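ok so I'm stuck.
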Amino acid sequence: MKFLKIISVILGAIAVLGGCAYGAGGANAINFTESELPGGGIKVPHNERLHLSTDQQWIHEQGHLSDLIRLQWTDPQAKPALVWADEKGADKTAIISHAKANNPEQHDHNHISIETTMSPTGKNAGQLFTRLEVPFDTDVAEIRTHSSNFNVMDGLLRIAGSKSAHKDLELATRSGPENETTPRWKVRADSTSETGGNSGSNFGIVRYSDNGEALDTPLFIQRSNGNVGIGATDPTKKMDINDSGIRIRKSYTPASATAPGNPGEIGWDQNYVYICVAPNTWKRTQLSSW
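replied:
not stuck anymore, here's the structure
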């Protein structure tokens, strides 16, 4: 408490020298106290505000002069944090940045994370848990989220990239202790050149092997004409199947040659194959064994 009183006096003196409304004593004096929350610290009086401002440019060579709040770790495993506590003083949410994991056997975390507490009735009740993390010291920010549902309400989820690059949404399995993943499927707008006429950036679903190697594209749709390829990436018709056959599992027998139907519908039974050739007009061909 003696230290807090000294700080209060010093800040009050600075306020007087700077012409601030808060003096070292008097009606508007700031009286700092010790925080009652776990870990202690200096407590600013209730309902007071901290107003920080700057007109300094952000210049790297001059030490980032626009910095107003700087949280530093002086031990590799320390975790400087901004924490929000409830009315009872329990931590509920936090923004944390740190380098080393608490467990020395784990890989370096090197990220900033947004954390919230676990369910009060579940495992690790009430403990802060990482929900979103963004790494530093890397040229590609691999944004991660843990044990989360991701909802976009009345908005848009967009994956964008250059015209010469794949735009992928990957479905993968976790394959290692350090959050390694192995792809199983990719939903893709491919890197085919956009040359006009709605060509290029075709759609596909890519299938992967157990070890994460691309096997094929079982479903492919050309953007220019909407042709669909099943096992074919160059479909020439609305449906182009690169295989030896198709299967219609259920049999269907039209009640008569004038049964309801639309042109192009197909049915079969043990004796005939039926094709609707005009509205409510069916023809059939007899099947025979050999």
